[in-house]
Structure formats: C-alpha cells, structure tokens
Amino acid sequence: MNWQAISFDWNQVRAFLATAEEGSLSAAARALGQTQPTLSRQVAALEEDLGVTLFERAGRAMALTEAGRDLMEHVRIMADAATKVSLVASGQSQTVEGKVVITATGAMATYYLPSIIRKIRDAAPGITLDIVTSNEVQDLTRREADISIRHARPTQPDLIAKLVGDSAAHLYASEDYIKSLGPIQTLKDVEHADFIGFDRNEEMIVELARHGLNLTPDNFTVNARSGTVMRELVVQGLGIGFLTRDVEKMEPRVKPILPDVLTLPVPVWLVTHRELHTSKRIRVVYDILSEELPKSGMV
What confidence tier does 5 reach under pLDDT thresholds 50, 70, 90? Predict the structure, then answer.
C-alpha cells in the first residue's frame, strides 16, 4: 500500500460525491446536514489536494469536468465500501428493519432478482421486500416505490440514478418459425411476418422504421404487456419479438434474426429517491442491488 499517495480527506470526498449527485452545493449541504460554506470549502480543498478542477461553476449549478467524471467512478466505489464498513462496525446490517418496495419488469423480477433477494435477506433479515412487476414507470417521487429498475434514465431532478448495465435487444423467433419464413437475408424478408407486440406498438413501428424495418399495426397479431409472456409466445413460435440478448443463454429454442443489422440498446438503470441518504433500509437494499445486478448475467 502506497500510503503517501492517499492525500485527501474522506469528508472532502463525501462532499464532492454529494455535490455531484445533488447538482448544487446548496442541495448537497441539505442532504449532508452541513452549511453550504463548509461544503464549498471541502470541495475546494479536495480540488487543491488533487491538483485538478472537479466542477464547472455555472450560477448555482455544479457540472462535473472531465476530471470530475473520471473521479466519480472511483468515489462511488469508496462510498459503497464506506457504507458497508459502517454497517458491519455498528451491526446495523442485522438490525435494519422495515419495508422496501422494488419495482421492475416481469422478466427482470422473474429471472434476475430472486438470487439477489436472497443476498438482501441474508444481509438484512429485518427488511421486508415488496416486488412490484410492471412495465410502467412507477412514480418514486410519490413513494409508489422505493427503488426502481428501469430501462430509461429518469428525468426528474429529485431522483438518484445509476447505470448498472448495458444490454441490447434483437429480433428473435423460434427455429421453426424462422424456417417457415424462408430465407432471411434482409429486413424486408420479415416485413410480412407476425410480430409479438409488447406495448406502445405505434412507437415501436416508428423506431423500427428508423432502422430500416417497415411494419404496420397488422403485423402485431398477438400483444402482451408482460415480458415473460412475450418471451414464451416467441418460444412457442407465434411470431417474432424484440428480446434482450440474454435470452440466448436462457432459451436455446429461439434464435436471433439479423442481429448485425438491427440492434436496439437496452440500458439498465437503478433508481431511487433522495431518501437514500437518510434511510438505512433503502441504502442497504440499493447497495446490494447496485453490486449484484451487473453480475447477474442480464447483459
């Protein structure tokens, strides 16, 4: 360990992280229960100690510089580790109690959450978990859920979001259904096929047209609002569906169609509200999800 290289104060690092996540010194000061001048001095001291500028000041807003963005990745790891150390030292991981509501798509809740929930239960048996499966974006600002796993970054300023995975979606169908379509060399060869609709088919038609696949509402002969139902409909040969590429590891009966031609990005965001800073039970669950989701095989 090169002890001489560790030349900064943890309080300064915490001030930097809070300012970056909250977006301003005043909001960070409220979140940490400090005064704004104190927080400002800590951030300035960290910049001086490291010899870099971490924020661009634009009025009250604080925008990360390139050096600040580079530092954020490492600081978040430090913060997660510090939280775990505090929990272990105080025994809080065993005494935290209460309910935490997690919302996720049906596929995420079915295929990836159970093993992570076991880890949460082992770490904090006093926490009760409610899993809400929905493709709708739950309103965390109204406390309809405590933590959400989404495929789109939230725009609400009062929410905390962390990108925990990047996957992709392709066209998939059963081997038998693919054979029934005949040779497939271009996207035009599947424009007469049956498709499994998921939700908001009109938006999907517009997006697919941008990628060179021209469909109409008549293509969507079966529709499902559940990702797990949609996956099974594709497996049973009822049409083509857009599925994330992890299906190839879990379901050998389906095959991708022209994956090099048509790919849609599917980010995975872990989202919560500002209570993360004050609620021990939400912090424990959020930290475990943040650590385990990237290892779950969803990407």
Answer: low
Q: Residue 239: which region, alpha, beta or left (left: phi > 0; alpha: psi -120 to 50)? A: left
Residue-number span of the structural domain to which 250 is assigned: 167-265
Q: What is the CATH number of the domain that holds 183?
A: 3.40.190.10
Backbone φ/ψ region at 258: left (φ over 0), alpha (ψ -120 to 50), beta? left
Are 257 and 276 contained in the same domain? no
The answer to whether residue 291 scores a pLDDT higher than 70 is yes
Write the single-letter amino acid at 153.
R
Return the structure tokens found at 13: 């690092």
Residues 258 and 201 grouped into a single domain: yes
Domain shared by 173 and 258, yes or no: yes
- Residue 46: what pLDDT? 87
Give tens-digit pLDDT for 222-280.
998 888 899 999 999 999 999 988 888 888 889 999 999 999 888 999 998 877 777 88
**208-216: long-range contacts (C-beta < 8 A, 24 or more apart)?**
208/262, 211/187, 211/262, 211/264, 212/187, 212/261, 212/262, 213/187, 213/262, 214/188, 215/191
**In the beta sheet, which residues pair with residue 132?**
103
Q: Domain boundary at 71, 90, 109, which?
A: 90
Could you tell me if 236 and 174 are in contact, meaning their C-beta atoms sit under 8 angstroms apart? yes
pTM for this prediction: 0.63
**Overall domain count for the chain:** 3
- The answer to whether the beta carbons of residues 199 and 226 sit under 8 Å apart is no
Lowest mean pLDDT among 81-85, 207-211, 231-235, 292-296: 81-85
CA 198/CA 109 separation, integer angstroms: 17
Q: Answer for the pair 166, 299: CB distance below 8 angstroms, yes or no.
A: yes
Cβ neighbours of 163 (radius 10 Å)? 11
- Single out the residue of 51, 46, 58, 37 nearest to residue 12, CA to CA: 46
Q: What is the mean pLDDT of residues 54-75?
A: 82
CA dist., res. 74 & res. 240, Å (int): 42
